[in-house]
Protein 1
Amino acid sequence: MINTFTLDGMSIPFSEGQTIIQAAMAAGVYIPHLCFNPQFKPHGSCKLCTVKVNGRQSSSCTHQALSGMVVESNTTQINDERRMLLQMLFVEGNHFCPSCEKSGNCQLQATAYELHMMSPHFDQFFPDRAVDASHPEYLLDFNRCILCSLCVRASRDVDSKNVFALSGRGIKSRLIVNAKSGLLADTDFCGDDKAANVCPVGVILKKRIGFAVPIGQRSFDEQPISASPHPVMKEV
Amino acid sequence: MTSHLETAANLENLRRIAIDPVSRVEGHGKVTILLDDKNRVHQVRLHIVEFRGFEKFIQGRPYWEVPVMVQRLCGICPVSHHLAASKALDVIVGAKHLTPTAEKIRRLMHYGQILQSHALHFFHLCTPDLLFGFDSEISRRNIAGIAEKYPETARRGILLRKFGQEVIRHTAGKRVHGTGSVPGGVNKSLSIIERDELLKDIYQMVAWSRDAVLMVKELHHQNPELYNSFGAFRANFMSMVGFDGGLDLYHGHLRGRNANGDVLFDGVDYQNYTQLIEEEVKNWSYMKFPYLKSLGRELGWYRVGPLSRIQNCDFLATPLAEIERREFIAYGGVMPMHAPLAYHWARMIEMLHAAETIKDLLHDDDLTGSELVVSGERAFEGVGVIEAPRGTLIHHYRVDEHDLVTMCNLIVSTTHNNQAMNEAVRRVAQQYLQGHEITEGLLNHIEVAVRAFDPCLSCATHALGKMPLEVEVLNEAGERLSYFARSGAGTHAC
Ligand code: SF4
Ligand code: FES
């Protein structure tokens, strides 16, 4: 017998141990998310993937699928709340899409388009965060970090290096580099690391690439994030 | 000279008029005029609220971001900043010679920008003054009035601009704030489809550009007294010219002439612009006043833009525009033309040249090539210069060994023209305001002089033709004597 639950009225099959988002993705149904990446253990921090399970809010990236549950995702109310979360992420950092090289390949931007976010709505924080350009091949632009911890998980769980960590609490949370100097150049980070290629926004960037891919050929120019949530970045 | 009007000798008993903001120009500027009780002009100043924060803002950013980021300086000619920054960064990445495809795509983008900007300026912003008269009925002295009375002129203006924007879109990826030019080259060439789409319309654009030259030339011939003398002042002038001496808005070296047209300097490598130009700060203006070091502060100021370029170069490489250039030079006689209104004529000759250049480029197979980027030995300092629609644009950067920008200096066209525009408004104030009861129409004369330079006064974007204008005349006790307010809808005096 196949286990199923309903998602916005559709019947979604799942196998034992799958989370709601995993089952939905396998069935080709998009649930907005940022800190979830199918290659890593879920982190459950961004809350973009929030759905209603039998009427109660829950993160679909951590909530196990159970037979017969009724899940709502694509509703006006939930999408309004997701949009507000996105707006908060935008104003907390410095996200200047028109001059960001990740534009068109950025999951934050693509999700904002998907959810029709038209303005930041809240007052901008304009935090003052310096760029770490110490590494000869990679650059860290902390202005755009959304604290999804994907680089932390990739470096720890795949690369076995622990280059990155999240530090501080609440609004003071920030990404740090595990080196006495705090600089990427003083770690064993390298371009082949999983952590070098996992950031959903424009923090961890290979240097001197910039705007090499023209507008029209970037990942989310071709299809919206709902059609392809984790596109493979183009090699330049 | 009008320099005595920069600062009044004695401020007592003078009343102040402010034209704030100057309308139908890009961005925000104001003119202040001090008059005595007989309406004699004592002081005239053009103030420009320029956005200088950018030079600071860019520090600490990676250099490859700069050509895209600098476009945020200006919504009107972002491509000029995009290309000037790219040229400076070509030096940083050691790209001594771009591939033919990269250079031609950039040229195409630039001439598209010239076309759209010149069309916008002439048709949308200036024809209302030139066709209706400087003090004509204000309610129709705008592009809507033109569209009603001269629908074909308005239509051509719109379509010429649109074509220029399409050229930009195909080369930069977007009409505004594209990404096409990158350090060392470009990120895309033209597809055959894109090229053919542009080719389809280019002949029409050349023809209409030619008609625009004829139109402005006709205006000069009809009223030489006005066109030759309105706000006229003598000045040195400077521009980049091609290495062969011809007009080249994309690349070359610097040449300057004095007011008689004699060459002051030529063949100057713009990497060394700091040896040529110094910038003076004046306490009453946010914008600096550049001058030629060799001539000093008093005498060294100069003019840039179409009027300078057309008279500074030896020839235009496209046939129709070259015929027009010769006629323009012949009209001026032995001396260069200095009249601000001649800017319009020169600007339209450039627009024709841009259209012809685009036509030639579209027939060049290099445009569809695939070699896009080169690099070489890394440098740490670079200067990029381009002749933007409004004049010479200088971008200068230093980049550290970690690839971050440590210094940025920009000299934009409007800054080069700062003193020249001040001269023009002072001259007009003397010619037209002196001793007269001030009316809106008279004040518009001041704006006409400013507009001739096509200044881009800041990065602010205002709805075209909708800028409010407030003019307040106060007596020395600060009491309001008269007041005009103009909203988008019209004018009322109260
Ligand atoms: S750097 Fe990127 S991957 Fe790492 S926490 Fe920040 S946003 Fe996530
Ligand atoms: S994707 Fe589930 S909380 Fe971020």
Protein 2
Amino acid sequence: MVEALEDMPLLWVLRDLIGLKGTKFGCGVAQCGACTVHLNDTAVRSCSVPVSAVGENKITTIEGLSEHGDHPLQLAWQKHLVPQCGYCQTGQIMNAAALLKSNPKPSEDEIEQTMAGNLCRCGTYNRIKAAILTASSGLKS
Amino acid sequence: MKYLAFPKKKQQRVASEVFKATRRDFLKAGGMLAGGFVLGVSLFSCDNKGNKKGPFAPNVYLKISDSGEVIIIAHRSEMGQGIRTSLPLVVADELGADWGKVQIVQAEGDEKKYGNQNTDGSFSIRMFYKPMREAGAVAKQLLIQVAAKRWDVPVSECDTESSQVIHKTSARKIGFGELAGEAAELPVPAAKDIKLKSRAQFSMIGKATSIIDLPAITSGQAVFGIDAAVEGMKVAVIKRCPVVGGSVKSFTDEKTRAIPGVLQVVSIKGAGLPATLNKPLAGVAVIAENTWAAIKGRDLLEVTWDLGPNASYDSNQQIKELVQKVSGGEGTPRRNRGDFKSARANARKTIERTYIAPHLAHATMEPPCALAVVKDGFCEIWACTQNPQGARDVVAEVLGFPVEKVKVNVTLLGGGFGRKSKPDFIVEAAMLAKQTGLPIKVQWTREDDIHHDYFHALSVQHVVATIDKDNKLSGWNHHIAYPSISATSDISVMQPDDGEMMLGAVDFPYDVPAIRIETHDAKTQLRVGWLRSVRNIPQVFAIATMLDEVAEARGMDPVAHALDLLGPDRNITFNEEIVKGTYPNYGEDIANYPWETRRMKAVIERVAKESGWGKKLPKGSGLGFAAHKSFLTYVACVVRVTVDASGKISIPHVHYAVDCGTAVNIDRIKSQFEGGAQFAASFALKSAITFKNGRVEQNNFDGYEIIRMPDSPKEIHVHIIDSEDKPTGVGEPPVPPFAPALCNAVYAATGKRVYQLPIRLNG
Ligand code: FES
Ligand code: FES
């Protein structure tokens, strides 16, 4: 249990109050996707979700995506050597994981549109796309 | 008019020496204790004959413990370029270590121990490749000596593999750990007796090695600056003066203090003017229990500023004024060859164009942040810094501490691009920690970052090219104006410094009979710093798009034109033609790192071949070409675009050919080029910072756009020239040729020339 101001964004509750730091701060205004987590099974920008709006809903962060860091996307990310600085990558993975949950076989175009909200200043976009395709090829549609 | 000559740093010759380090050295360097042996490598400067002159740089440490672990201290900052992996893998390859058992310890900032750690200028691999190999090779030789003696076999029958010495004929093996203690007793072989592997023997160099931080990154465990924490830490968010050089007159903090969690409100005296490359801006800091309270409190502050002399700065107005200046008359000559005036007088055709590019912000995905603890006269910092020593020195200066009383720990960097070479944000944390007695983390928001960056400055250039009656390019006259980086430290500087001019302007390599390069005054009313490849960006934008026009005017294919203009194979020095000073050649002796037209031509030919240059394309599609050498690395680039009826640009293919000497980590070279293309696509298509009333008009990624996946270049192919030359860096060189290649492709597809970045085809 933690106590927080009602309007405190989920991002800062996770990072500052609970100490789950895999979720990153990039813009604070739902423009970059670095803070992406799952609210139930949907990707949300935790910087723009006040903690009071979470209620009883289930939140999943990168720390809870898989037990041993071996979600198909995490493995695909390693296979394609996606990260450069790595800062945006947890948000990218969480956004992609929500996509694959709702759409296990996304087309390239669907991937691009869904991932458009996640910025990577290091420019790893093509490897991200390849990794998502790899992960999705191992999933049942 | 004033410009600063490039600091007369003599081009240095550097040699290295492997030595046996004491355990104390290693401990001090942050390594762990317990048995084994430790080697250090020192770099020193030397004269032309190779005689030692004095310490140049770092001692780098390598340790093999009694349990067989190999520990390497990485002393350069990691920000996505993979250096924390690439240098250790060089050691591990020579040593024959089991890569899975290699531990990498990040070094703190300490000039005495590690020399210059400022991780910029695409420099790390260039400087440390050979010393790192030697360290690995020496360790291997010592371990083999011990094993050979035990087995009573000649050393020539032994080799290393997977952290073991093996006797090749009998297949006997002994692990490094069992040999380390005895190896520590042996003398280090003389430099001439160090045997390096041949290229065919490499197991990792020249191949793709995954970065060591990969699993930590994908599982969210990697520790960036923003993740650093200590017990009792408070968070500070700062309202900074919106105009550079202003100061705080007064402030009201009642509303701020009413926010639960807000602890203190503290005013920060800024550097004033000059803004400097390392001191904070004036501001008011809100210190709170958590980041959110600090942000909220900061936003509620009411500050009255003395805005100072830059309060009327208008960047669009400045561009208009500079356009007049660069196209209107003589500037300060910076390079001169032949007689441009007569080339112009005798020209059959003259092409004259003006090129404009805006201010840019780095916008690293991790905004600047730093944690400082000041206790008992000692200051300890954790920060995402490219320049831990610079941070250490300025923190010591500002706190009034001796440097030994400041320690800077380097975290991973969530992007650097030059922004995190400036320690202003670290100084903020140190000042606040000292003043409040609390452990303080200073957190910049994205708005802070966009408003208060050390910007890549806008530029206005005018190029005049003359073609004579024999259809030869007879004259080249390049006029340049932009706020200089030097002016951030000295406001009287009005023209580009020599360091900026060498980045793609005075090192114009084409064999044109008359070359005249001139600079003009531009006032600096913002903080200017270096951004990935720095002035190469605008200078090559102008040069390589103009060359495309010249090729067309001469009725030549742009690739054939570039090859022709480079002329016969030769080494260029530029020196005789530079009006003041000498060509700095990125700090390297030009005898060791010559400018070779042969290598440039080879990358051009390669990229043309790989990209299918010359192919006929459907309407609305086009290929564009540009080539450029920067940071001693040769790059040629071909970009393919399609432009739809609405003017929307897509980039289906990019081809790069690169000659960076010996390729150390193929994968990280490729990834730097992929990222370099995306970085350049951002400023070519999206990004611009403007100032009005001295203030930045953009706030966040909605106003300051960077490229997103749907618009990003799709297939990026990187062709690496096979070379045994000395390795050179790849962090920055991909960036400069991309934008002009893209502009040239847009012309091929649409018939529209681009003279201003970012590209706007409609309007
Ligand atoms: S920090 Fe939430 S979208 Fe950028
Ligand atoms: S890997 Fe650096 S921002 Fe994406």
